[in-house]
Amino acid sequence: ALGSSFDLSTAEVLGAGNYGYIITCRSKQSGDRVVVKLQSVRWAGVAVKEWAHGSQVSGHAHIVSYIEAIMHRDANSEIENHLKAGFDNGILKRRRPKFFPDCYFCLALEYMD
């Protein structure tokens, strides 16, 4: 599902937080770089609250816009492989999990550089 909206071949791992991982990639529709927050379904409630709040305040010049929310099943392990590479090359510093989720709740946000 994520690959239908975003070009995952352009994905770069940025980091990790309390609830998941952050990558950047390009939107297939616009070609713009976006930020995608990847959270396991365990944190779906947190993601839904963030999406609801972020959608309400989008449009302000100093707040990133929320673009899309997607439930992604990582059937081909594409996300898992990007995350493993992030651990291997030292971008992701926290403890590497033994298992990666097979499904992610993904929030796509405007990339501000």
From TrEMBL:
<dbReference type="InterPro" id="IPR011009">
    <property type="entry name" value="Kinase-like_dom_sf"/>
</dbReference>
<keyword id="KW-0547">Nucleotide-binding</keyword>
<feature type="binding site">
    <location>
        <position position="37"/>
    </location>
    <ligand>
        <name>ATP</name>
    </ligand>
</feature>
<protein>
    <recommendedName>
        <fullName>Protein kinase domain-containing protein</fullName>
    </recommendedName>
</protein>
<keyword id="KW-0067">ATP-binding</keyword>
<dbReference type="InterPro" id="IPR017441">
    <property type="entry name" value="Protein_kinase_ATP_BS"/>
</dbReference>
<dbReference type="GO" id="GO:0005524">
    <property type="term" value="F:ATP binding"/>
</dbReference>
